Amino acid sequence: MSEKVKFEKREELKQKPDPKNLGFGQHFTDYMLSYDYDSEKGGWHDLKITPYAPIELDPAAQGLHYGQLVFEGLKAYKHNGEVVLFRPDQNFARINQSLDRLEMPQIDEEELLEGLKQLVDIERDWVPEGEGQSLYIRPFVFATEAGLGVHPAHNYKLLIILSPSGSYYGGDSLKPTRIYVEDEYVRAVRGGVGFAKVAGNYAASLLSQSNANEQGYDQVLWLDGVERKYVEEVGSMNIFFVENGKLVTPQLNGSILPGITRKTVIALAKELGYEVEERHISIDELLESYDKGELEEVFGTGTAAVISPVGTLKYEDREITINNNETGPITQRLYDEYTGIQSGKLDDPQGWRVVVPEY
Ligand code: COI
Predict the structure, then answer these.
(1) Transferase as a keyword (predicted)?
(2) Do residue 183 and residue 297 come from a single domain?
(3) CA of 40 to the centre of ligand 1 (A)
(4) What CATH number did the domain enclosing 106 receive?
């Protein structure tokens, strides 16, 4: 048995939210995991599970000024009384890649996974069991050193907070979304931080997101930052197209987030016998393919968004409707397989589920 993480009990537990109205990321559990870093005190220290509460932060904390802040998103599910995490090793590996890009200290992936399991064990009553529901897990790390000089900070805090959640877009997770193809602003360029899960990437997306929302669209589809020609990703998802029965998705090029759901869906689709291509896809190619009747389905993938069909794409003065604004058969099949494995309703031959033990 691994060593128990220090645990500070709270006096009173919170009232749990109505499981019928969870929303996404609106409720937080009783406890959080916390870990501090000080380069002068040997690095990471004081790993503990404490009551979920506001934190004290110096107003000059560098993370607030210069954006050293990376995060992750993963989920826990409950099925037949058992609580599982889905591919958590992938999230801890990716957070290290993001930390590396922002010149922040690496974490010990195994140690953090063990801490997370202990936290989720304590909070197992918070893991919702309804269709499409899960416990959304948000690890994040930010610079806490006080000072306004621009340099890599010497002090950081890592927190993991937990939020019982339903579908990201609200309501039915398979309701097709309306996507606006952004042709003015860009999200990332190669050599930048597009591949890393850093807070600034999301801040940079908000103006376009608001513009799209005002025009009646749910999300923005980004084009590449140089030619504004090749499709990259959607605000909170990677994107897939089904052309003539074949799955096509933008190849990872340094400016696209290497999604864990993306990776899982590619593996799953191949196993199910679909051909999958990762390559450059221009927006013109997609419109041509649509005109020829070959663009059969479009869907996004993400931890929060799961597998989410796209019903509308708007680019410049054209708006196209995909598959009659209905969830296509391949999207539906991948959704059923993927969520079946995650939730424990289907077998897990790849060993993607990680059981949370009772400590
Ligand atoms: C996730 O899918 O977990 C994300 O982090 C995307 C979004 C909620 C920011």
Answers:
(1) yes
(2) yes
(3) 33
(4) 3.30.470.10
Q: Within a domain: residue 211?
A: yes
Site to probe by mutation for ligand 1, drawn from 85, 236, 261, 262 as the one with most ligand atoms within 8 Å of Cβ, is 236
**Ligand 1 centre and the CA of 291: distance in Å?**
33
20 and 151 together in one domain: yes
Structure tokens at 328: 């296509």
Residue nearest to atom 5 of ligand 1 (CA): 73
pTM above 0.90, yes or no: yes
**Which residue range forms the structural domain that includes residue 296?**
177-343
Q: Taking Cα atoms as reference points, which of 128, 113, 115 lies closest to residue 166? A: 128
- Number of domain units in the chain: 2
My answer on whether 293 and 189 are in the same domain is yes
* Alpha-carbon torsion, ordered 327, 307, 285, 229, to 10 deg: 140
Q: Residues 132, 236: one domain?
A: no
Rounded Cα distance, 228 and 225, in Å: 6
Per-residue pLDDT of the chain (359 residues; tens, 9 = 90+): 578 999 999 999 999 999 999 999 999 999 999 999 999 999 999 999 999 999 999 999 999 999 999 999 999 999 889 999 999 999 999 999 999 999 999 999 999 999 999 999 999 999 999 988 999 999 999 999 999 999 999 999 999 999 999 988 776 778 899 999 999 999 999 899 999 999 999 999 999 999 999 999 999 999 999 999 999 999 889 999 999 999 999 999 999 999 999 999 999 999 999 999 999 999 999 999 999 999 999 999 999 889 999 999 999 999 999 999 999 999 999 999 999 999 888 999 999 999 999 99
For the CA of 261, the closest atom of ligand 1 is 2
CA torsion 70-338-239-74 (nearest 10°) is: -10
